[in-house]
Design goal:
The chain has 79 residues and is an all-alpha fold. The chain has four helices and no strands. The chain has one domain.
């Protein structure tokens, strides 16, 4: 069984107050909402976005773009 741990987060008092009010109005514990948001954030980081999926499909289809180096890739991406 996993052991629960505590976490503290710094935020503006008005953000906390609004969050707590919405949590209360939906009859959900604030901690449960935060856990759900954390799970959603993790899932989004683990799931490729539409651009990445399109590039992966193109690569599988016809090889896609090839780059001589990471720098060349970054230049192509504009970063």
């Amino acid at each position: 069984m996993a052991k629960d741990v505590q976490m503290s987060i710094k935020m503006e008092p008005e953000l906390r107050d609004r969050f707590m009010a919405v949590a209360a109005s939906t009859h959900r514990p604030a901690a449960q909402i935060v856990r759900d948001l954390m799970r959603l954030y993790i899932a989004r980081q683990e799931t490729p976005n539409a651009t990445t999926l399109a590039a992966m499909e193109e690569l599988e289809r016809d090889g896609g773009k090839r780059f001589a180096s990471a720098d060349a890739l970054f230049r192509d991406l504009g970063i």
